[in-house]
Amino acid sequence: MELKLIGIDMDDTLLRENKTYDEERFKKVYEELKEQGITTVIASGNSYPRLDEYFSHMNHEDLYFAGDNGNYIVKKEEVLHKAVVDYPEIWEVAKKLSEMDNISSIYCDGVHSYSTGINKEYEDYILSYYGNLQIVDSLDEIKMDEIVKIANHMPSSLEEIKKNAQKITDEFSTFNAVSSGGGWFDIFDIHGGKGSAIQALQEKYNAKPEETMVFGDSQNDASMVEHAKYSVALSNADDKLKEISNYEIGSNEDQAVLDILEELIKKGSLEFMEQYKK
After folding, report:
1. How large a percentage of the chain has pLDDT more than 90?
2. CA–CA separation, 248 vs 278, rounded Å?
3. Phi/psi at 143 (nearest 5 deg)?
4. Residue 245's closest CA among 265, 264, 226?
5. Which of 38, 151, 154, 181 has the CA that lies 20 to 30 A from 219?
6. Parts of the chain with a pLDDT under 50
7. DSSP designation for 277
């Protein structure tokens, strides 16, 4: 095999729109990749407890989880890395968010999630991501110096969401903000993100960018793309992500990620990827 590291996003990448994926196919692929000495990391905007649920059907002791957009890395239930946001500037970010219309802000520490209130019209949708969400009376009840991500939901167009994310990035130099699909944009430390998780594992396993493959669909996957020769966008991906990715495959609904990984195992090389090159 020519690869050492594979990074996979969840929502709208591995997961179908209904939040399911072919669990048995993934289990088989994961085991075969592991036998080949290839490390797999699930790099997602979802928090670790949610990611753990998605793979509860299988033994995933050697599977890395880079939750909250790569800012909380776990393996075998051991926390390996936690990229907390700038404190106390997070208070200024919180103030800025409170001035935005119709926004539900979720403060995540890697395991727990908190909010002072969410849009009731979208409550079921928001809780599908943050089932352990705790509603607090004030942000003073949250340990803000332990926050790794602020997830923000807005019932707005993708263009409007990107504009609001850009406002945060422009105003706060120690923070990064990116759209993550489904009406969300996430805020985290400028040195964090999924790309930082990929870099950390590349260093750990001596994996070069040309020995790394990543799959994604949204702007929060862009930092991963920067560190992988085999950067793969789904056909349903954000156009901006497609522009910077080297390859484009089928859709999440068709389970294209699993198709590629199965072909990789079958072929034993990456020559077949030429047909997906842009």
Report:
1. 99
2. 7
3. -80, 85
4. 226
5. 38
6. none
7. B
Give strand pairing partners of 133. 113
Where would I find the H helices in 20-89?
23-35, 48-54, 67-70
pLDDT at residue 1 in the model: 57
Please state, as a whole number, how many other Cβ atoms lie within 10 Å of the Cβ of residue 205: 14
Long-range contacts at 71-78 (CB < 8 A, ≥ 24 apart):
71/110, 71/148, 71/149, 71/188, 71/189, 71/192, 71/193, 71/196, 71/197, 72/47, 72/48, 72/110, 72/111, 72/148, 72/149, 73/197, 73/200, 74/48
Q: Are 213 and 5 in contact (CB under 8 A)?
A: yes
Q: How far apart, in whole angstroms, are the C-alpha atoms of residue 192 and residue 184?
A: 18
In 3D, which of 160, 178, 182, 157 has the Cα closest to residue 169?
A: 178
| Nearest C-alpha neighbor of 84 from the set 18, 143, 21, 155 | 143
Residue whose structure tokens are 């669909």: 217
**Domains of the chain, each with CATH number or no CATH:** 5-83+192-276 (3.40.50.1000), 90-189 (3.30.1240.10)
C-alpha 233/C-alpha 191 separation (Å) is: 23
User: Which residue has 């850009």 as its token pair?
Assistant: 166
Burial 134-165 (b: 16+ CB within 10 A, else e): eeeeebeebebebbbbbbbbbebebeebbebb
Distance, in Å, from the CA atom of 156 to the CA atom of 269, rounded to the nearest integer, reads 43
Write down the residue that tokens 């994926």 correspond to.
21
Structure tokens at 145: 């110096």
Q: CB-based burial of residue 219 (10 Å sphere; 0-12 exposed, 13-18 middle, 19+ buried)?
A: buried
Q: What whole-number distance in Å separates Cα of residue 41 and Cα of residue 6?
A: 6
Retrieve residue 78's tokens.
């051991």
